[in-house]
Amino acid sequence: MSGEIGWRERLRAAGAVARRDLLEFVRDRRTLFITLLMPMAMYPVLALSSTLGLRTALSDLEAQQAPRPLAIVASGPDAPRFAARLDIIANDESRLPHPDWPASLTIDVQPPDRAKALFEEGKADVWLDVASGAIGELDGDGTVKLAARVAGSGATERRIREHVTAVMRRLADVTRQRRIARAGLPRTTLEPLVIDFVGGTQPASAPALRGVVPTAAGAVLVLLALLTATGAFYPAIDAIAGEKERGTVETLLIAPCGPGDIVLGKFLAVFAVTLMTLAMNALSIALTAAVLLGYLPDDVRLGVGAARAAACAGVTLVGYVGLAALAAAMCLAVTAASKSVKEAQNTLTPVILLVSALAGSALLPGREGHGWFAAVPFAGQVAIAKATLAGEAAGKATPVVTGGLVASLALSLLSSAALTWLLLRTTAGMITDEELLFRGPDSASGVFKRPAARRRPTPAEGFVVVLAGLAALWYSQGIAPEDLARALPLQQALAVVLPLVAATWWQRVDAVETFGLRWPCGGGARGWGAVVAAALAGLGMFAVGATLLLALRGTALSPEARRLSERVVDLVQRTPWWFSWALIALVPAVCEELFFRGWLLSALRSEREARGRTAAAVALQAAAFAVFHLLPERMPQTLLLGLLTGWMVVRSGSLVPAIVAHVVHNSVPLVLLALAGGAETTPATVESTGLPPWTRAAAAGSLILGVVLFSLIARPRTAASAAVPPHDRWRPRGNQE
Amino acid sequence: MIEVIDLVKHYRAADGTVVRAVDGVSLEVRPGEMVGLLGANGAGKTTTMRVLATLLRPTTGTARIAGCDVRTHPIGARRHLGYVSATTGVPDRLTPREILRSYGRIHGLGPDVLEDRVEKLVGVLDLRSCADRPCGRLSSGQRQRVSLGRALVHDPQALVLDEPTSALDVMGSRDLLDFLVTLRSQGHAILLSTHRLHETERRCDRFVIIDAGKVVAQGTREALAAGRPGGLEEAFFAAVARPAPAEVVP
User: Fold this and answer.
1) In chain A, which residues have their Cβ closer than 8 Å to the Cβ of B147?
2) Are B212 and B43 in contact (CB under 8 A)?
């Protein structure tokens, strides 16, 4: 169909749709409220309340740090002489100022009973019990042990302790100097080094504020991400669900352009509003920050230069442009699956909550804005901005824009662009979906009604079963035994077999069609050829995946991954080879292929197949397969394996090559373990560095050879193909783009 | 201009059963001809029209607009098609002029042609008094005229109109149908579905009656009503094999 219309016409149509939608958005009060009014009102309110809180906190801090009078009551045989020593120190005018020295010092000597009474009545801050012989020890070379009871609690008690410590340290210093003089040593003996900070003084409250700034900046960044995403909320609902409800979406779908062009136009309009929301939020934050500085005491203002602040803001905004695009595409995709505005609101609300959770995860310790985390949607952008601002707040003298930062920013933008594209393709598929376009109102009653027999499950059923499996996998970790020989079958049964059997029975899907339970390429020599090619690809896939893992994460494994590897090695060492092979290679491969390349891929491909939709289905099931493995270390490798085996199923229409490739892939580490001698081999070396360069080259060759062979042998079948049953044939592409 | 040959459209209901909405419909509308598509609710009229409008894919069979197959050349078909249904609405926050302009742009009309076309339609459809008022404040009749203007902005040769008068009062309905007669005289091919037989029986050149997804009768009003005192209405009931309602005697 794309041949029917040139790219200029497509862009013109997309531009016209964007212009039409924008005109509608700017006349929508809800959109104007979210875009203009909310940012302008929210940050001043937040700043005012947080400034008041900050000022109160600083006042409390100042009050806590201010010197207070210290009343000491001393008892015991040597108390009078000890009090006299303290009195001398208190009145010593040559003493250097100390931040913990009390405002005034009074020492009262009383008998123990009276001293106790005074202390309990609160008339003394400290009750010192000075034992007999204390002064003798002090004047000699001994150590005096004083028992001190401190009144008050919390900050007051802490401050009294600081005062007492300062006074006693001074007494100790004076005593030390006397002892040195008595020994004939110079005073500098115990003072080999003195440091004098030149030029300015450290602001008293700056350390406290510097602890607050990254937290506050992080919270603002999360809020900015959330409000930016919220900017897409109403326009996206209006753009698709609203149009469906008003009956105007049909008028666009009969325009002389493809659904992709219409979705592009709608995306541009929603993106423009989202960018406007981002800009207004950023402006409000900048103005509020300028006002906020005026509210704060002079000594807590940070000396951030205007140019460096602008650079920080620039880095943040560039990252958030990607976030805005992603939010616009995500909201459009979600609302495209809804029939009405109400349904879209109900669906989008938890999605927005998910966005805030993702953005908030960037504030967790260890989540810096570099490495793979920069690619995580809604979290990477916040992490990059947080890292930039945190570096600035800490007063680093390094440039704001570094090579590492540029790489992270590029990765983040690339990830946002790829996800945006994928979401827009999905939206274009859904906007013309006949069922979504013309179906009746939703009802939960259908969920409990067993449907009629059909070829494949729907995409929603595909995801529900995967979510059920994922939940079962997660919870089974709590009840699974430590021994893998029992844990693996239990997990496979709960997370894969049970949901799959239940869903297949309840949904009455055609098991042969859904799971591709047929020999590839109609059997015969070509079928065997496809199986051999799949085995070759699976053989190479393990080392290629492990190399990718090394490149992404290095050789360091997380404690969880290391523990799993140790359990695998333990299983291999104490059970027969065929048992561990069946448990680690065969059973998971069969179960997971049935689950992901069978059920989920089949559900996502739907009844009407189109190239874009099939590609998206392969990518989505591979991503779900990667997430299913729970450990982040395993995800890149499992993602690649999922993509490879998904492609094999689409290409051949059979699950057999995918199972063979998966079994071979899982068998490789077991063979390597056996070759390395098992007991002497650590899991880490087998997983990563244990592969010499020549094996990697051979593995890459095996993978390429397998893929090329498979591609040649398992050509897509056409309707003209007489060798395959009619229900297997590739359907011609529909009348939508 | 509008051709439907052995059109079949099946879809799956919520309970999983297959519904044969259209089951082998064939019809043709030539340029300068207005054909009425008649049928009870659920007969398959709207599904047939949605297939012609490229909104639904045919299961089998062929549907063409100006020679363009809706399955293989949907964009070509859309270029020559104007479509209005009872459920198509207009954007509430835009004015009629803005709507006509925006759809003209989507159809690729240049600025000069577009302005001429918009002003002409505003005049012809009697929208001058409300042309700059948001559509949310317009009456049903005015909104339906805006909807028709939207379908005509690119001057299509084929018009597929699914119950365009259902929301209109008697006068609004008469004005719209008279306007369609004018369009027919200008050479447009019009396929019109309606339940109001009395309004269309003297305006349409031919009628196609469908029931349960199949064409049960077709021809001119005279041919269908031949020998029937109840005219087209009686012919319709006879075609769908249901008794005509008894005449109420006061």
Assistant:
1) 251
2) yes
Inter-chain Cβ pairs, chain A and chain B, closer than 8 A: 120
Mapped onto helix, strand or coil, the DSSP state of residue A431 is helix
Residue A400 pLDDT > 60:
no
Pairing of strands B214-219, B206-211: antiparallel
Residue A303's contacts (CB-CB under 8 Å, 6 or more residues apart) are none
String of DSSP letters for A237-261: IIIIIIHHHHT-HHHHHTSSS-HHH
- Per-residue confidence at B158, pLDDT binned at 50, 70, 90? very high
Is residue A84 within 8 angstroms of chain B, CB to CB? no
Phi-psi region of B16 (alpha: psi -120 to 50; beta: other; left: phi over 0): left
Q: Do B90 and A736 touch (CB under 8 A)?
A: no
Per-residue pLDDT tens digits for A644-688: 999 999 888 899 999 999 999 989 888 887 776 654 444 444 444
Which of A27, A435, A735 lies at the smallest CB-CB distance from B70?
Answer: A735
Chain A neighbors of B14, CB-CB under 8 A = 439-440, 446
What is the pLDDT at residue B15? 65
Tell me the nearest-neighbour CA distance from B101 into chain A, angstroms: 9
Amino acid in position A623: A
- Nearest Cβ partner for A246 among B78, B85, B92: B92
Task: Kindly list the residues from chain A whose CB atom is less than 8 angstroms away from the CB atom of residue B87.
Answer: 247, 250
Query: Is A52 or A380 the better-scoring residue by pLDDT?
Result: A380
pLDDT band for A735, please (50, 70, 90 cuts). very low
Any CB–CB contact under 8 A between A83 and chain B? no
Radius of gyration, alpha carbons of chain A? 35
Average pLDDT, chain A: 80
Query: Looking at CA atoms only, how far is residue A338 from chain B in angstroms?
Result: 16
Which of A29-38, A612-621, B6-15, B65-74 holds the top average pLDDT? B65-74
Provide the 3-class DSSP secondary structure of residue A695. helix
Q: Which of A595, A606, A596 is nearest to A456 (CA)?
A: A606
Do the strands B60-65 and B34-38 form a parallel or antiparallel pair, or are they unpaired?
unpaired
Exposed e or buried b per residue across A53-80, where buried means at least 16 C-beta atoms within 10 angstroms of its C-beta: ebeeebeebeeeeebbebbbbbbbebbe
| Residue that the structure tokens 């051999």 belong to | A532
